[in-house]
Amino acid sequence: MKTKDCVAYFKKIHEEIHLNSAKLVELDQAFGDGDLGISMDQGFLAIYQFSQICDEEDFGKYFLQVSKVFNESAPSSLGTIISFGFMGMAKSMKGITDAKLSDFQIALKKGLENIKEKTNSKVGDKTIIDSLEPAIDAFADANDKVDALNNAFIASEKGMTNTSDLIAVHGRASYHKEKTLGHIDGGAYVSHVIFKALCND
Q: What are phi and psi of 122, to 5 degrees?
């Protein structure tokens, strides 16, 4: 896979995020400022547009630029968190111009590790990680792309759904403590939407 092949994936992700932007706003309004759908829509549109014009062939340099574009275009805490993920992927894929499934399996793990390190978050904290980590683990355990994406999608959905049973411990939602029970975490929902888009490849 070449960097130019990412255009189609970013297009699918943005389209799915855009379709779910109203739902993201609704989820965020419960305990946040309600702009999650807008910021995610802006962020993924920006990296889709960037991917269309970018000529960088080194995946490391490519994802580093994607990280910067997303961080600048999605002005929210989740925008910064997802940028950490792209940054971790960039470090893992430095020098790679023709990526294999195994390269992405390693890169996604490194992206997740960077998010967890920078945010001091873990599964059970009611964040994007509750959907992202099981999805990436499922992706890493597969032997071909179709199974990897399908398994990641299923795992992301389960992880996202499980956040309704958790109490938020980070961000503005943490001030509401037990009131966050019964509510899906917006970040986990974003992760699920991303893997839903990729699963439709």
A: -150, 170
Residue 15, domain extent? 3-199
Of 14-23, 141-150, 177-186, which gets the smallest average pLDDT?
177-186
DSSP 20: T
pLDDT, one tens digit per residue, over 10-47 is 999 999 999 999 999 998 888 777 789 999 999 999 99
Encoding tokens for residue 172? 């503005």
Q: Is 136 exposed, middle or buried (0-12, 13-18, 19+ CB in 10 A)?
A: buried
Total of domains in the chain: 1
- CA atoms within 13 Å, Cβ hemisphere of 47: 31
Cβ–Cβ under 8 Å, residues 121 and 115:
yes
